[in-house]
Amino acid sequence: MHQSLQETIHRMALELQAVSAQSMQEAWWILQTITKRTMLQLLLDQNFALTDEEKEQLDEALYNRVEQEMPLQYILGQVPFCGMHILVEPPILIPRPETEEWVQWLIKKLAPYKDKKFSILDLGTGSGCIALALAKHCPLATVVGIDINQDAILLAEKNKASNNLSNVSFILSDLFSKVEGSFDIIVSNPPYLSFQEWKELESSVIDWEDARALAAGKTGLECYEKIINGVRAHLTSDRVMGDLPRIIFELGVSQVQAVTKMLADSGFGSIKVHQDMSHKDRWITAK
Hints:
Elements: H1 5-16, H2 23-35, H3 39-44, H4 52-67, H5 72-76, E1 78-81, E2 84-87, H6 97-110, E3 119-123, H7 129-137, E4 142-147, H8 150-162, E5 168-172, E6 185-188, H9 195-199, H10 203-206, H11 222-231, E7 247-250, H12 256-265, E8 272-275, E9 281-286
Parallel strand pairs: 3-4, 3-6, 4-5, 6-7
Antiparallel strand pairs: 1-2, 7-9, 8-9
Helix pairs in contact: 1-2, 2-4, 6-7
């Protein structure tokens, strides 16, 4: 039976209400993704009709979203991040707005150094979103992203190609194990949930996103410990970057004090905890 655009959107929104408070918005996003057309193009189409293939894709998307609670970002296949489109595939961690916030902050800090050559290491790069955003906005910088997951590296390479960037490379490595040389800045959004905190997340996260990218041991501090223990051997001397922080880590609220102490005990100074737009402690910087 042929359905008009209005009927199609209405039916989708009704189904999506089970999993989303913005079901109408999700319905439009999914339909635009499947038909590869903008909202305006769809609204202007007097003879709107889905092909058999599009109907199948739509049914599959609704099943995945409603019955399987697949995150919407995986269904759409990409997320916006710092002015780029980042491809996302399960189970690689979906870039979060909170991460985008501190990356934007860092990009602003790096603006005066745009014409200088310097190097950045991104530990636990996942989709590559952080490394790619920094590479895009600092075209003379050399950026390296590492991850322990081969699928993450493959996805990061896809994102490098789709965003047409050449000053970034990705390496399969367990933290510093395959990393050679020193870097002017080291950034990371490491797994920082305790196993207990991870177990309490929504099923849309637990069932779909890689636990290794989210949880680290009983306290959520394991990754920070490993990074801080190894980081000094991979930092250049302080001269190049002036007043800029040398280390930027995303934080979980429960890790703030412990990570601050770890950095101080390792001889780092100018340690500062920064809040996101929701006034939550979100990232830490040090020199």
